[in-house]
Amino acid sequence: MQKQTLSFQAEVAQLLKLVTHSLYSNPEIFLRELISNASDACDKLRFEGLNDAAVYETDPELKVRVSFDKAARTLTITDNGIGLSQQEAIEHLGTIAKSGTRDFMAKLSGDQKNDAQLIGQFGVGFYSGFIVADRITVESRRAGLSAAQGVRWASDGTGEFEVSEIERAERGTSVTLHLKDDASDYLNAWKLKGIINKYSDHISLPILMPKEEWKEGENDQPGEMVVTGEWETVNQAAALWTRPKKEITQEHYDEFYKQISYDHEAPLATTHNRVEGATEYTQLLFIPSKAPMDLFNRDKASGVKLYVKRVFIMDDAQALMPNYLRFVKGVVDSSDLPLNVSRELLQESRAVKAIREGCTKRVLSMIEDLAAHDADKFKAFYAEFGAVLKEGLGEDAANRERLAKLLRFASSTTDTQTVSFADYKARMKEGQDAIYYITADTLAAAKSSPQLEIFRKKGIEVLLMADRVDEWALNYLQEFDGTSLQSVAKGAVDLGKLQDEDEKKAAEEAQTQFKPVLDKLKAVLKDKAQDVRATSRLVDSPACLVVQDGDMSTQLARMLKQAGQPLPEVKPILEINPQHPLVKKLEALDSAGNSANFDDLAHILFDQALLAEGGLPEDPAAYVKRVNALLV
Q1: pLDDT tens, residue by residue, 308-351
Q2: Helices (H), ranges, 61-162
């Protein structure tokens, strides 16, 4: 009999150290995790069985068994699912074979609540058994392998584990926990049934335990519960979404959500519907309370669980939900799709398109309901998922108007992200014909931008946008409810009726009066600026950078460059404030023919305008040298 002693992957060893120091604040969660794993193993067998019925061998009734031995102080969870080969036991129980493992481990902080959520999300719930056990033994045989190809895996949760070949007639897996001295509660049938009813009642497979009956004592001896030799089902054994809604409490929904999402918090919102018509399906969908750590990893597989006629098909059916709603968890059970449906077929199916549209509308309705009736919950939702929701402006033209109504922003008059487009429109000044906004790297940078100066002077509100997705998303939204959206950092500022005739006349005169200075600035800055012009948008600052309408902003260009994207050269327009002392000094230097100082001051003005919007001078050392020369 071959036996190997192997070391845990470094990340697993670190994880186990956290677990054994009572990572989970609620230790009984281990049973939910292990039953969930057992259920998944049965789902995988059922899926393989769609193409190869032989995997069922002589045992077609899938189930999970939970038993304990008081004398040996062991608790065993057994399933007759897909099972593990020896190599799979080494890979699945000794390593975390997922991308992003190091990032995941780096995020573990020792904060019980947050770490429990991360560990669940990462799908390593098996190790939670070490909360209550000082040794775990796993015996398994993969479906299709011979009885002689069974495997035993054992570890005390420190640095190593043992793997050996065993004879195992039964297909599937048995996980035996050798309980710690302080875990005697889990050698009690009543206690175990209570945990199963609380966390795993919705599992669609029967969860069986040895049946016990009360036996009266004889000869003045007290009575006791005795095992009858039969097994009894201790859960409902019916998929939660198939049961009548009137039988399901919010607590049932919450526990089901926690089981499928590995989240320790209850969901923010829940919807459960049976849709009938040309396409028939049931949807049970949840909006989480918190964003997962990898929300913005667009390469990560996401999506709801897909069942067909109650048979589990796949975990992350991306075709059933648009990417901008990738945070939604839940289940869709279709009556129309074939049992052997593939990911490729999902992309082409009319029924899938109808399900996707129905799920999208249902989720947007949930969010709209929060916005209309529960301000606190909507605020919590938007703080977690507002940025990803904006992606929908570009991805979902059919629902663009609904999404636009849900968006919230800070503004030049409000620091918190609470201003909707409708709120903004309701307080627009008489004669104002555009919704003004500015994008920046941070809200602080947006709020202090020189481009807001004329708007502040005239009391015109400007929406402040600092999410990385904002500028890309706003390309797909040119107007809201008939009012155009205008970036204050694009094109010449035109306040229309909000600018009086004297201001317009002064701006035109400045353009003419400063023409010699503007022409010289264009020549000096020809490698940096597309154009130089006088502006009326500045009040306190000497200069600012803008781009032409339709061009990529300098902020977006910076972001794409940082991401390694190849970009065409983007040259901004330098706008100068004719009333500012520094600009007047430029004019004096030009009149005096002092070209050297004129050139230095011109570069300083450009670089300061770049700094004001979060950029960096192309040559910081040259910038410092020029400023120092100006100061002495």
Answers
A1: 877 777 878 888 999 999 999 999 999 888 876 777 777 778 88
A2: 86-94, 101-107, 112-121
Q: How far is 436 from 452, CA to CA, in rounded Å?
A: 10
**Per DSSP, what are the bridge partners of residue 162?**
5, 154
Which residues of the chain, if any, have pLDDT below 50? 22, 97-100
The beta-strand segments (E) located in 180-239 are: 207-215, 224-233
Residues 6+ apart with CB under 8 A from 327: 287, 288, 291, 292, 295, 302, 384, 385, 388
Residues contacting 557, CB < 8 A, separation 6+:
567, 570
State phi, psi for 128 to the nearest 5 degrees. Answer: -65, -20
User: What string of H, E and C letters represents the secondary structure of 56-71?
Assistant: HCCCCCCCEEEEEECC
Contact, 212 vs 228, CB < 8 A?
yes
Using the 8-state DSSP alphabet, how is residue 247 labeled? G
3-state class (DSSP) for residue 180: coil
pLDDT tens-digit profile of 517-535?
889 999 999 999 888 988 8
pLDDT of residue 298: 63
- Cα–Cα distance list, 417 to 383, 444, 467, 486, 510 (Å): 8, 13, 11, 19, 38
Phi and psi (nearest 5°) for 494?
-135, 100
Residue 490: both structure tokens together: 């694009």
- For 414, other C-beta atoms within 10 Å of its C-beta total 15
